[in-house]
Amino acid sequence: MVDDQLLREQAQQRGITVSDDEINETIEKSFGYLRVPPDAGALADTRSGRHAEHRANATPAPSPTPVSLEAYEKAEEGVYLPPQHGDGDV
């Protein structure tokens, strides 16, 4: 708290100013957030109402890899699965 006050006083004496936008931008950069430029809002996707650039930067959801029954059974060979409740042995 004292450090904050000293920083403010020194900044004022030296004529240093920082806007709220500069503070927010610095915080966002430290967390890896990329601010969308104001004109990018024109790229709205009319189907969902969301902005196309948001989906372009999104991490895709994983999708299952198709596998045959034979390949699945072969991959499961030697895998020990403990008995589940209700399987008789507890």
How would you portray this structure in words?
With 90 residues, the protein is mostly helical. It has a domain at 18-54. It is 41% helix and 0% strand. It has helices at residues 2-14, 20-30, 52-56, 69-76. The protein is elongated and about 75 Å long. It starts with a helix and ends in a 14-residue tail after the last helix. The relative contact order is 0.05. The model has no long low-confidence stretch (mean pLDDT 75).
List the helices and strands and how they pair.
Elements: H1 2-14, H2 20-30, H3 52-56, H4 69-76
Q: Care to give the gist of this entry?
A:
The protein has four helices and no strands. It has 90 residues and is mainly alpha-helical. It has a domain at 18-54.
